Amino acid sequence: MYDYIIKLTKEYERIILVDGVNSTSLADSIMAYIKKNNYDLRVVVLLAGDFEDFTTLFKIYEFSDKIKLFGRNKQYGGLMNLVDTGLWTEEQVFEAILH
Fold first, then answer.
1. Residue range 23-34, pLDDT digits in tens
2. Given this model, what pLDDT does residue 32 score?
3. Distance CA 73, CA 61 (A)
4. Whose CA is closest to 29, among 85, 79, 75?
5. pLDDT digits (tens, 9 = 90+) for 45-74
6. DSSP secondary structure letters along the chain
7. Which pTM does this prediction carry?
């Protein structure tokens, strides 16, 4: 698994791990947004539950901008909380995680 992680970190500029409630539909929405806006950025979106090793590495090495953990979690506020409260649009949140 670690060889695969190393391969992905070399191949992609951003690795977005989507976690929490409705993570599959959120991951699909992020990929649709990336395709719609023709990003010149190599991005892969993964479900955090399928890649526990990535999630563990993120929690240990949070200093990297390359790996981002993202999702909608009821336990604490996050970027999706801004969407839920109507302060930001989903597109604004996606833009924020891609930068």
1. 888 889 999 998
2. 92
3. 21
4. 79
5. 888 878 777 767 766 655 567 777 777 766
6. -HHHHHHHHHH-SEEEEEEETTHHHHHHHHHHHHHHTT-SS-EEEEEGGG-HHHHHHHHH-TT-SSEEEEEE-TTS--HHHHHHTTSS-HHHHHHHHH-
7. 0.69
